[in-house]
Amino acid sequence: MSSQAFQKVYTKLTNITKATVSLTAQDVGYDEMAVVNGRMAQVVKIMGEQVVLQVFSGTEGIPTNAEVTFLGNPPQVKVSDELAGRFFNAYGHPIDGGPDIEGEIREIGGPSVNPVRREQPSQLIATGIAGIDLNNSLVSGQKIPFFADSDQPYNQVMANVALRAKADKIILGGMGLSNDDYLFFKQVFDNAGALDRIVSFVNTTEDPPVERLLVPDMALTAAEYFAVDKNESVLVLLTDMTLFADALSIVSNRMDQIPSKDSMPGSLYSDLARIYEKAVQFPSGGSITIVAVTTLSGGDITHAIPDNTGYITEGQLFLRRDTDIGKVIVDPFRSLSRLKQLVIGEQTREDHPQVMNAAVRLYADAANARTKLENGFDLTDYDERTLDFAKSYSDKLLAIDVNVNTDTMLEIGWELFAKHFSKAEVGIKKELVDKYWKE
Amino acid sequence: MEKNDKTTGNVSGIIANLVVVDVDGPVGQNEICFIDHGDERLMAEVIKVTGNQAYVQVFESTRGLKPGSKVNFEGHMLEVNLGPGMLSRNYDGLQNDLDKMEGVFLKRGDYTDPLNREKKWNFKPLASKGDEVIAGDWLGEVEENGMPHRIMVPFKLEGTYTVKSVTGEGEYTVDDEIAVIEDKDGNSISVTMVQKWPVKMPIKTYREKPRPFKLLETGVRCIDTLNPITEGGTGFIPGPFGTGKTVLQHAISKQAEADIVIIAACGERANEVVEIFKEFPELDDPRTGKKLIERTTIIANTSNMPVAAREASVYTAMTLGEYYRAMGLKVLLMADSTSRWAQALREMSNRLEELPGPDAFPMDLSAIISNFYSRAGYVYLNNDKTGSITFIGTVSPAGGNLKEPVTENTRKAARCFYGLSQDRADSKRYPAIDPIDSYSKYLEYPELQKSLEKNMGENWLANVLKAKDTLLSGKEADEQINILGDDGVPIDFHERLWKAELIDFVVLQQDAFDKIDASTPLERQKYMLEKVLSIVDTSFEFKNFEQVGDFFKRLINHFKQMNYSEFKSEKFKGFEKELQEMLKEHAVEAKEEQAV
Ligand SMILES: Nc1ncnc2c1ncn2[C@@H]1O[C@H](COP(=O)(O)OP(=O)(O)OP(=O)(O)O)[C@@H](O)[C@H]1O
Ligand SMILES: [Mg+2]
Fold first, then answer.
1. Which of A300, B171, B283, B377 has most Cβ atoms within 10 angstroms of its Cβ?
2. Is B183 inside a domain boundary?
3. Which of A74, A282, A339 sits opposite B104 (nearest CB)?
């Protein structure tokens, strides 16, 4: 970013820490951006004339006589239709070798939508993946993360979801993305002929971690442009939010803040909520849906990052390897879509809610049977049948490689019920059993 | 804190929403001030004073704010405006009317009037000239959404006053004078329909606060039947994310027998509030036939709205509740989630660099929580009428671990504990209230026991206890079966387990999204409990343990069909009859009469 003419240049730092520099300066606004010897920085504290700047890429090698100029504005991004098909870094600068874009300058991290101006999310998003569509249907305007261990193919699943979701625009916010994954996204979107619908803001593992903090706001400000100004349905992909939260903890740690659980800052909940709550259905028809990734360590969802995320998002999609079938599945126990009841049985077939619940209940019975088996007890006939059912259910419906429509998923459900159980064991409303049971 | 000259100051420091102000005069703790920022005025509250520096928490984003900005202190704490017209309104945590704000996005510094100043209300006098009155006494009333809304002697007035005049029946705006009262020195005070009150102070214009003694019907079986809450009672719902806290609270607020429902959406999802906005205007209040929204006020300070206002939101909600209670109404207050309120306190305490308590929460968290809960309660007003605030808060324990400061401190303050269990939620046993760990201390109150006996019959309490025992016995049997195996225990253990499962599936589990099952009136709860207990009391004969499970699963299936059917409809009776037949298959002595 070039400094404008007549801008005051400061050259005397009074204090340097790992993450911040301080100087005496006047007329500086909170949150304002600055440049310190060519590095981007932001005002994080003002005490009298002492201004503390957080330098995104760290302060290594910064001398006390470094040149500091203030840009007079908070972080911004240029928005216009020219964003489509382009790749940018965390500051919104092109990284795809293309030209700078023309557009309107907008502050990122802008105000929240007035809750009374929101519409209730109501449009089903079909993905073909039964672990999602059958058990955890997505709705436009929803915010939902994948919870996955780092060795699971979450980016692939997310790319599939994105391409099948029929969104007008897809905005990728990549944080700490490995170069391979960055190229992966570029390639899938390209192959699908979807590049013109996609905007990417990417911070890779090669970039300074603290820069990641800007990525979600960049992506979401661009999303608001398309959703509000153009009334488009926008799908925002944020991966990996765990690395975003790690960057938050780096900053708060370097600024000597008192950490709360898992050395995360006490404001983690609010910091994450500010981002996820940008998901919205606007009355004018535009919408922002957020699908994110939160990587777990060893499946531990009690860690502060997934825990706070779960309290904010409208459910989560939990990926797990099912060793019985040798595939990754969307775990029906730990997964949840809280908005599903707005659409299932209404935009999908009437038997959807009951089939979904019955299958999960029987799958839970299978889990109990498995515990018995592991403890060396004899299994009853019912136990055996639940185990058989669980295996087919996992393979035919839960696995992430499933790609069928919702009616077919329900049909498969009824087939499995009839194959393994009696009507009473399934415990579904009689009217529905009468109508759909496969003799 | 009344002052003549207003104190002013200048911003000298900014760290996120904590701002340091150099002041030129006296300031009070919790005093409200406004910071000039261009054309905007940012509202803030004093939270600490050292020397001539006031530390204020700003209820807005401080982006772009510069040192030197002018600050005006208001001479009072955070106040709400109390008057007719608050029902069906959607406020933010500072009582700004959200519907009055322009545009799709919230604008910083946009403060809107919580009341409608033009609307005329039909006022009817209740007091007469010469009456001696004190704060909270009723001077007159207007009708708000079909409910009597009493116009009271302002709560801030101390001592006794004499009514000099009360306006006759007629149409008035909230700002018109409706009465003049006189203090003992002969000073006249003009009273309108509006008064202000600082939210952090409890309104105590009642005569007496007895222990709660009356059940508050919620239609949720595992509350009403097993662990009832009372009019004026307190309860809390802790549970890991996604276990059903919000769904349960919404169910209670739709169904509970209350005159007024106030919902504080405190730091949670905006879409959940939208759900209320959309649903409540459609749903009928079963008791009045009016729409639910007419008895409801929503305080929406969702997670993306300013953190400091989130802290204020629960107090704003409680103050509105106390105002309606003073009119002799039954208020139900819900806060979702009180953990977000505690976190707002934590964020500020950390910025102030206070010595942290457990998990970095402020040291006085426990006192703050219990002070808040103590504002609920059943009261006798000075005119012998009664009113109540029943308060139920959710708690979102970090990592789902109930041994964390907010849960532990709330446990000390609230009398009912509705703990949601991850296991039950995972196996979709909703509502996921753990039947063994949860409790209602009110069940031990002789006052409540007496009233239950009167309204629910002599056997009710014994039946409730029997249901609890059966659940516990089933759990023990289940543990043994898990250790010793299905074959390793007598068949009797399976029967115990399945009798508990019967109660679990028929009484505890309730589908919040089914039209009929969602809400169960007490009469139906009683009928079903007795029905289920009659089976628990029956001795059965089984050849092997597999028969037990098969048989009970069929029973449960039939019972569930009953739960899904209109009470005592043909369908309902049909299933009941088939059930009766089914029982004969294994019953040793078919007991026809009801459980003891
Ligand atoms: N009584 C119920 N009947 C059917 N489904 C339920 C019930 N209670 C909860 N659920 C399911 O669980 C989901 C999560 O419930 P809810 O939003 O109330 O959780 P929560 O405890 O408030 O979570 P959080 O702490 O994250 O806000 C709901 O969207 C719904 O799918
Ligand atoms: Mg909730």
1. B377
2. yes
3. A282
Amino acid (1-letter code) at residue A227? A
* Distances, alpha carbon A271 to alpha carbons A246, A309, B105, B246, B334, in Å: 12, 10, 19, 22, 25
- Residue B80: pLDDT above 70? yes
Q: In this structure, what are the phi and psi dihedrals at residue B526, rounded to the nearest 5 degrees?
A: -65, -45
> Does B465 share its domain with B395?
no
Measured on CA atoms in the order A300, A303, A305, A311, is the torsion positive or negative? Answer: positive
Q: Which of A136, A132, A139, A190 is nearest to A157 (CA)?
A: A132
The segment(s) of chain A belonging to CATH 3.40.50.12240 are 76-341
What is the count of structural domains for chain B? 4
How far apart are alpha carbons B309 and A171 in whole angstroms? 32
Residue A195 contacts B where some CB pair is shorter than 8 Å: no
* Prediction pTM value: 0.93
Neighbouring residues of B168: CB distance < 8 A, sequence distance ≥ 6: B125
Instruction: Supply the CATH classification number for the domain A76-341.
Output: 3.40.50.12240
Q: Is the dihedral of CA B320, B326, B328, B333 positive or negative?
A: positive
Ligand 2 centre and the CA of B590: distance in Å? 45
Quick check: CB of B198 below 6 Å from ligand 1?
no
- Residue B135 one-letter amino acid: A
- Distance from residue B256's CA to the centre of ligand 2 (Å): 19
Has residue B301 been placed in a domain?
yes
Q: What is the CATH number of domain A9-70?
A: 2.40.30.20
Tokens representing A54 are 């957080």
Residue range of the domain that includes B187 = 121-193
End-to-end CA distance of chain A: 70
Q: Considering CB atoms only, which of A260, A316, A424 is closest to B554?
A: A424
Write down the pLDDT at residue A102: 95
Q: Which ligand places an atom closest to the C-alpha of A307?
A: 1
Peptide bond into B12 cis (omega under 30): no
Whether the pLDDT of residue A73 is over 80: the answer is yes
Averaged over B403-418, what is the pLDDT? 97
- State the residue for tokens 């069940």: B443
Q: Is residue B382 part of a domain?
A: yes
Q: Token match 């300058």: residue?
A: A105
Q: Is the ipTM of this complex over 0.85?
A: yes
Alpha-carbon dihedral B62, B67, B72, B75, rounded to 10 degrees: 80
> Residue holding tokens 């009428």?
B385
CB atoms near residue B441 (< 10 Å)? 16
Residue of B223, B247, B272 with the most ligand 1 atoms within 8 Å of its CB, for mutation: B247
Does ligand 1 come within 6 angstroms of the Cβ of B518? Answer: no
